[in-house]
Amino acid sequence: MKTSDKLFVPSLPTLWPGMLMAPPRPGALPPFSSPNARYFYFARNAVWLTMKMLRLDGGEVLMPAYHHGVEVEAVVDAGATPRFYRVGSRWDVDVADVAKRITPKTRALYLIHYAGFPGPVDAMRKLADEHGIPLIEDCALSLLSSDGATPLGTTGDVGIFCLYKTLPVPNGGALVVNGKRPYSLPEPPAPPVASTFSHTVSALLQNLELRGGAVGRGLRGLVRSVGHGTVKAASIERVATGTQHFDRRHVDLGMSPLTKRIALAQDLEAIVEARRRNYFLLLGRLRDVSPPLFNQLPAGVSPLFYPMVVQDKEALLARLREKGIDAIDFWKRFHPACDPSEFPEVAQLRRTLLEIPCHQDLSPEVMGQVAEVVREALKSERRPSKRAS
């Protein structure tokens, strides 16, 4: 492939038309295999409800300094106070720092599994048990991942998942309660049908462009222009996913029945296999030009994307997107409650970490093209600029 050719590599998987009518498969991984699960429009809704369910409002929740911010907003809105612990330059949670920061005011430990890579959940479980407080596993970025043979989200008292980052669904988050302690979890109402329809059409159009090249791109552009006008004229409320902030108005929204239908029809094992294949392909072709965050892929990990450390993230993002690769700028801001000066490794991560899509929609041929474009972009980044003589 010539690097001047236009790719279309979306950051998230797209919806294939056949998935709308595919029969359900048995769910072998949480949350689908979990007996005590509730589904929501957003994973952040599950975070908010967890604070209320565990009666953490009025207390402190110990959270990682490397966070998105929306989960922290949900904790604060629910009435709890976030406190933060150290995360290293390889997403490594400093368990000793966690232990040191636990006080009598600490009411829960909050562990995030980053992009499918497991955090030290056994050590955190031990700490939580020693202090008689619950452990919350945030698996919003780690759906379908396991720590060896143990699925993520099953060790903590609560596991929280986001569906639409990993599966081609219009919305969806889940809260799973582990153990024997009973909780009365409400079944939230379904979201507006028009909003779900709008997201579904968008995912189908992305699939059209992914498969149809220039023709698909043109058709997608035409349909989008007509669709935007229709949505505006009909005053359809589109509850956007992927937003940066928690909105109390949406806290009671449940997951759409269409989302559950599409999700249950997925071949989950095949998705994990495809993501691992694509990660290994990128690792083999890029590790010599840019250090990966992880030089291996542990057993059970279903990578959300391929993370790598770069020098000029903004310039590289622009260069890749110009070539049609929707690279991801992962979590570049601290929540205001967290002091950046206290966590320099996290500040460095936010400045330098870039993520390349490696999801199940992307064939080995496409991943080869992606690797070529990324290599060329990285080399261009390092070439000295020519000065006028």
UniProtKB/TrEMBL annotation:
Highest taxon listed in the record's lineage: Bacteria
Keyword Manganese carried by entry: no
Keywords: Aminotransferase, Pyridoxal phosphate, Transferase
UniProt keyword annotation of Transferase present: yes
GO terms of biological process kind: polysaccharide biosynthetic process
Family: Belongs to the DegT/DnrJ/EryC1 family.
Name of the protein in question: Aminotransferase DegT
Species for this entry: Corallococcus carmarthensis
Lineage of origin: Bacteria, Pseudomonadati, Myxococcota, Myxococcia, Myxococcales
